[in-house]
Structure formats: structure tokens, C-alpha cells
Design a protein that fits this description.
Order of helices and strands: HHHHHEEEEEEEEE
CATH architecture of the largest domain: Sandwich
Strand content: 25-35%
Oligomer: single chain
Mean pLDDT: 85
Number of strands: 9
Low-confidence stretches: none
Shape: globular
Strand order of the largest sheet: 1-2-3-9-4-7
């Protein structure tokens, strides 16, 4: 199933009109209709807003309809690279219909701030595996080294960036799911 079909299926499951979803997502009804008919491709930003309007993570539209298995093999992880930041995320959870998601993030110091403001409340825990991270919350900034972790309310997140000159690798658990 392709992205447009999944959007239409989810919209009809929620008994929402094109206009209702478009208004909540900040896109036009005609653009949403084109996406559903596979005549247009949404940007990651638009897809994220559509996902929020339809109350699902972004990966809901991108995943394969495979049997739901509890184990995710290293070579089977779904990967997402955000275009502007070139940050790579590898999904660690087996499917996308969960209340929590876990992923491995990889960032280089040259990529700057990778934090994305959330329009809904989240809770997140990061564990640094390699390199160093600076995490800035509304009230303080923290420098983390391998083995350090931080737990925070997503609405307080201001920035996340790698420190030094090597790639930083971290595991993140977020609830509710955001991708």
C-alpha cells in the first residue's frame, strides 16, 4: 500500500473529511486530495503535520505491511534521513502502531541543532552510545558523554547537537511515538 492510500484509509477510519484533515494539517484540501490519489508527494514536514492530524506517527505511512514480529534484526531496521539536517534515524521498534518508539540517532557536529519542536506533549529519554551530545532544555543545558542518559518533557527541548569533531550516536525512547 502506498502513502496516499494509507492517508485515505486512516482518514476514513476516523470519519474525517478532506477539508477537516487539511485544516488540521495546515495544507489545502486539493493538495491532500492529490496526495491521496498519488498525484503529489508530500514533504516530510507536510507528512508529519498530516500524521499529527490523523493521530498516527509518520512511519505509519512509510512502513511495509509485514507480519508484526517482536524482534527487529539489525539489517531490517527502517531508516529515515531528514533532508535538511541529514540526521539518520534507525527505528528499533518492530512496527509503528505503538505508544512508544525507540530509535538510534546519528549526528555529526556540523549538523548543528537537530531538535524538532513537537506540537503535542512527549516524554523522551536519550542514552549516549558514542561521541558527546549537548542537550538544552528550557531551564538548563547538559553535556552528555557515552553512558550518560537524560529524561525530559519534549516541550522543554530547545536543542540537541553533537560536540567535538566526531559523530554522536544515541538511543532515544519517545512516547507517544512521533515518526
Amino acid at each position: 500500500m502506498v502513502i496516499g492510500e494509507r492517508i485515505r484509509r486512516r482518514r476514513t477510519e476516523l470519519h474525517m473529511s478532506l477539508r477537516e484533515v487539511a485544516e488540521k494539517a495546515g495544507v489545502t484540501a486539493s493538495f491532500l486530495s492529490q496526495i491521496e490519489r498519488e498525484l503529489a508527494d508530500p514533504s516530510i514536514k507536510s507528512l508529519r503535520r498530516i500524521a499529527e492530524a490523523l493521530e498516527v506517527p509518520v512511519f505509519y505511512f512509510l512502513s511495509d505491511e509485514q507480519e508484526h514480529r517482536p524482534v527487529v534484526r539489525r539489517h531490517e531496521r527502517k531508516k529515515l534521513t531528514l533532508p535538511r539536517s541529514q540526521v539518520t534515524y534507525e527505528l528499533l521498534t518492530p512496527d509503528l502502531n505503538r505508544k512508544m518508539e525507540m530509535f538510534i540517532g546519528r549526528i555529526h557536529p556540523s549538523q548543528g541543532n537537530i531538535a524538532h519542536p513537537m506540537s503535542h506533549s512527549t516524554e523522551e529519554c536519550l542514552l549516549v552510545l558514542e561521541g558527546r551530545l549537548r542537550v538544552e532544555l528550557a531551564d538548563s543545558a547538559y553535556e552528555l558523554e557515552p553512558g550518560d542518559s537524560i529524561y525530559f518533557d519534549g516541550s522543554q527541548l530547545q536543542s540537541i547537537c553533537a560536540l567535538g569533531d566526531e559523530e554522536a550516536v544515541f538511543i532515544s525512547a519517545i512516547t507517544p511515538a512521533v515518526f
